[in-house]
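Propose amino acids for all 453 sites.
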């Protein structure tokens, strides 16, 4: 590809035992990385050497032991603010995304924690705004049930506005620290926010000075209309799970078209689908690893969820028999055909069995696309999604750790760089700079300037 101005953005979506549910069972995989600071530091430093945009840790506020076969990495992990603070101390350039849930928090707390992390990381922090994918969280926070989508996003909208005001409550030059005059702070540049809304009343100001990035970039990942509006209004990047390119293109265009309503430029928001790259030095090596992982799944081969996914009842069919006629599907047939095609590509042959479709479905059940191939094949896929505007970059989810990440960095990143798709050096040192996002003016400074004029 000829080099163009537009560049791919790459982040790591950390699953400490790998994205594949059986990733931890490979002989070479680490099983205990989630709680080992040395492991986590090494991963972040490795990403920085490879010039990744960011390291991202998701979060949930509930758990149970029965998550072990499908979601071992999400069952138990470190609290994000604490972990990211530790990583900030051993890295210098890589962006750091911390997840905080608005449904079970107070804006003052989150403004304070995020602003503090932005200082500790030298302007490298961004906030993934979630309203909570796990409804069981309610039971851990003295509530009877998780709020519905409307209430969660009403709350989140107001929450985010309050946090943004708190970040601005100290103008950039409020702290004059003038030894001569004895003036430590210019009080005219410190603003109580006096927020009184439907859900929050917050006087302000914050007790942390304006963060290095002024306003931390926000990220979001919801699928509902309300979440997409929140993203279009406030987010710098949207995470998404997309398997089929046509749907991904539609999603991309749909989100970007919402931005004008908020006086935003489509280039200020980056769409980042997840990608699970199962890379080998050769295609055969990658395919052998995929098969090895598939056979390590701990499963009772319950075909009900897969039947729902493809709109054909597979229960009772022999696992090693052929798939039924796909035109029987109650879903759009071409989508089911494309899903099966992806499973065939991963398996390396056509006419896959029910078992082989089950393997692919289980590996991608969390919604991110798994591609099996050699470095050029993985890069081809990424380039196609990037050029056709299905993606501005990818949230890389290595299928096993650390080997899956090592191979991606060693083999795929250089191909992307050679094709002019990915940076070979950082141009800046903050999260905003990695994405070419300007540092916003302080809303209070702007208002006083307008009043002055
Ligand atoms: C890539 C990706 C990462 C996500 N990370 C989290 C997370 O860390 N914590 C969380 O509660 N939800 C997470 N979610 C879920 C979304 O925030 C959102 O709640 C979910 O997609 C449902 O959409 P809705 O909130 O619009 O109904 C993630 C979703 C995606 C696609």
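Proposal:
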């Amino acid at each position: 590809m000829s080099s163009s101005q537009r560049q791919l953005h790459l982040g790591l979506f950390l699953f400490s035992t790998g994205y594949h549910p059986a990733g931890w069972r490979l002989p070479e995989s680490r099983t205990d990385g989630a709680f080992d600071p040395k492991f986590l530091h090494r991963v972040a430093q490795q990403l920085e050497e490879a010039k990744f945009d960011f390291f991202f840790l998701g979060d949930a506020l509930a758990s149970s032991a029965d998550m072990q076969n499908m979601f071992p990495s999400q069952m138990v992990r470190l609290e994000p603010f604490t972990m990211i603070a530790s990583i900030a101390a051993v890295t210098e350039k890589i962006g750091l995304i911390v997840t905080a849930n608005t449904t079970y928090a107070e804006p003052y707390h989150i403004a304070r924690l995020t602003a503090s992390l932005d200082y500790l990381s030298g302007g490298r922090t961004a906030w993934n705004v979630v309203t909570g994918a796990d409804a069981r969280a309610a039971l851990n926070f003295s509530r009877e049930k998780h709020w519905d989508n409307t209430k969660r996003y009403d709350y989140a909208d107001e929450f985010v506005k309050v946090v943004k005001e708190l970040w601005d409550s100290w103008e950039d030059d409020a702290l004059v620290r003038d030894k001569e005059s004895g003036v430590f702070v210019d009080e005219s540049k410190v603003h109580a926010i006096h927020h009184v809304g439907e859900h929050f009343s917050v006087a302000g100001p914050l007790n942390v000075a304006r963060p290095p990035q002024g306003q931390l970039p926000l990220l979001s990942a919801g699928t509902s209309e309300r979440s997409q509006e929140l993203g279009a209004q406030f987010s710098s990047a949207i995470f998404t799970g997309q398997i089929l390119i046509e749907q991904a293109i539609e999603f991309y265009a749909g989100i970007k078209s919402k931005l004008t309503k908020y006086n935003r430029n489509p280039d200020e928001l980056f769409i980042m689908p997840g990608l699970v790259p199962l890379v080998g030095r050769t295609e055969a090596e990658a395919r052998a690893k995929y098969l090895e992982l598939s056979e390590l799944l701990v499963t009772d081969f319950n075909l009900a969820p897969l039947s729902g996914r493809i709109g054909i009842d597979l229960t009772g069919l022999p696992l090693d028999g052929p798939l039924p006629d796909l035109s029987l599907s109650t879903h759009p047939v071409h989508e089911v055909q494309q899903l099966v095609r992806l499973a065939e590509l991963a398996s390396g042959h056509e006419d896959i069995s029910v078992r082989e479709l089950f393997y692919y479905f289980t590996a991608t059940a969390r919604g991110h696309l798994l591609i099996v191939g050699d470095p050029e094949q993985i890069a081809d896929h990424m380039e196609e999604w990037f050029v056709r505007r299905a993606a501005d970059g990818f949230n890389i989810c290595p299928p096993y750790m650390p080997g899956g990440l090592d191979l991606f960095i060693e083999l795929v990143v250089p191909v992307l760089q050679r094709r002019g798709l990915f940076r070979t050096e950082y141009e800046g040192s903050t999260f905003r700079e990695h994405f070419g996002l300007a540092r916003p003016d302080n809303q209070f400074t702007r208002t006083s300037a307008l009043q002055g004029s």
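The longest strand covers residues 270-279. The domain at 9-281+374-452 is CATH 3.20.20.30 (TIM Barrel).
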